[in-house]
Design brief:
By secondary structure, the protein is α/β, with parallel strands linked by helices. Helix content is 46%, strand content 16%.
Length: 221
């Protein structure tokens, strides 16, 4: 299967010093909105890679320094400090590139959970070329029910406490939602995350076609 070709201009916007920027799609939404689910499905397409900060932290050795810091914050429903998150993400991307799982010149990232605050977005501005921000909009109560059910099925203790979950929603509104004001409105598209997963996927694919593959739509017309 041939690599996906993107409508991306080769100019100075896509270079940071001598290092090309990470071409990325940010999937943004409250807890339980399906960021990870949709990111994993979409990353099955050639040329895309799903990168989840949650998976990165959960794969940490709980006895390591980074693992202990993550557990201290996650069990209280707090966000992990920005500097730690960005440092871990950079290490993770280097590891993927060195192992041949990712090519910065060829692939596009589906970012899930990073940047998770406006401060992180500012730090990553000279590392990431944000092609699109997918905003998964969802109401709190249905998402709480979805997360609790998932926690029981997957034995995810950090998702089982309702008080912790509500605190995460509060953290999202205070720390993460302001990212919507950081990126240009022209790059933001909103999807109804309360719909059935297949309908959410259909909406996302439609947005990707319009935003990243306009030539393909013209040929199909």
């Amino acid at each position: 299967m041939s690599p996906i070709r993107f409508r991306i201009q080769r100019d100075k916007r896509f270079m940071s010093g001598d290092h090309p920027l990470y071409k990325s799609v940010l999937v943004l939404g409250p807890p339980g909105s399906g960021k990870g689910t949709q990111g994993k499905v979409l990353s099955q397409m050639p040329g895309f890679l799903h990168v989840s900060s949650g998976d990165m932290f959960r794969n940490l050795d709980p006895q390591s320094d980074l693992g202990r810091i993550f557990l201290e914050h996650s069990t209280r429903g707090e966000l992990v400090p920005d500097d730690l998150t960005v440092r871990l993400w950079e290490h993770h991307m280097d590891r993927l590139a060195n192992s041949g799982q990712f090519s910065i010149k060829r692939d596009v990232l589906f970012l899930d959970g990073i940047p998770r605050s406006r401060a992180q977005a500012e730090v990553l501005a000279d590392k990431v070329d944000m092609l699109l921000l997918l905003h998964l909009r969802a109401d709190q109560e249905p998402m709480l029910e979805r997360i609790h059910k998932r926690a029981l099925q997957e034995n995810r203790l950090d998702d089982a406490n309702p008080d912790v979950l509500r605190r995460r929603f509060q953290e999202y509104e205070a720390e993460t939602a302001p990212i919507l004001d950081f990126y240009p409105a022209a790059k933001i598209r909103t999807v109804d995350a309360g719909a059935a997963p297949l309908e959410v996927l259909r909406q996302i694919i439609e947005v990707l076609q319009i935003m990243l593959f306009p030539e393909a739509l013209q040929h199909a017309a």
